[in-house]
Write a structure and sequence with these properties.
This protein is of the alpha+beta class. The protein contains 1 helix and 5 strands, in the order E-E-E-E-E-H. It is extended.
């Protein structure tokens, strides 16, 4: 049972830097453009203690609602009891990164628009809906020339 209940209590592994990622923050972090409405992931960077999120928001995804020269405001929905609260968290840009959660959707939209334009030029209809994977077709396994084999694990042997 922990004896300290500070703001960063029990974050020893959560806030640590990755392997070979220690040291100052890369300059490319500050060159990323953030706009209102962008979806971002919150991941605290331990090299910059200013503007760091509370441990609850580490790993959460939110929407940017305000942009300042060195920080952003992120709207995160937090479960409190039986409801969601819209929490606005002010973070420095070192602690956020663009989320890839919509990338598959955006790729699909671009692909669908390309297919739609091609089919319109040819004058035919094309189905753009996603189709779930169907069950595999049934088949019969024949044992003629295909003798059943018993699979057993290999015995452990030491070579010392």
């Amino acid at each position: 049972m922990p004896h300290s209940f500070g703001y960063r209590a029990r974050t020893r592994h959560m806030f640590k830097r990755g392997f070979k990622e220690h040291g100052p923050v890369k300059l490319s972090t500050f060159l990323v453009n953030y706009r209102v409405g962008d979806i971002v992931d919150i991941k605290a960077n331990a090299a910059q203690q200013k503007g760091m999120p509370h441990k609850y928001y580490h790993g959460r995804t939110g929407i940017i609602t305000n942009v300042t020269p060195s920080s952003v405001t992120v709207l995160v929905h937090k479960v409190v009891g039986n409801r969601y609260l819209a929490k606005r968290v002010n973070l420095r840009v070192e602690h956020v990164r663009h989320s890839k959660c919509r990338q598959e959707f955006l790729d699909r939209v671009a692909e669908n628009s390309r297919l739609h334009a091609e089919s319109k030029a040819k004058g035919e209809r094309v189905t753009l809906k996603r189709i779930p994977a169907l069950p595999r077709n049934s088949h019969t396994v024949c044992t003629k020339g295909n003798a059943p084999a018993t699979i057993v694990p290999l015995a452990y042997e030491t070579t010392i």
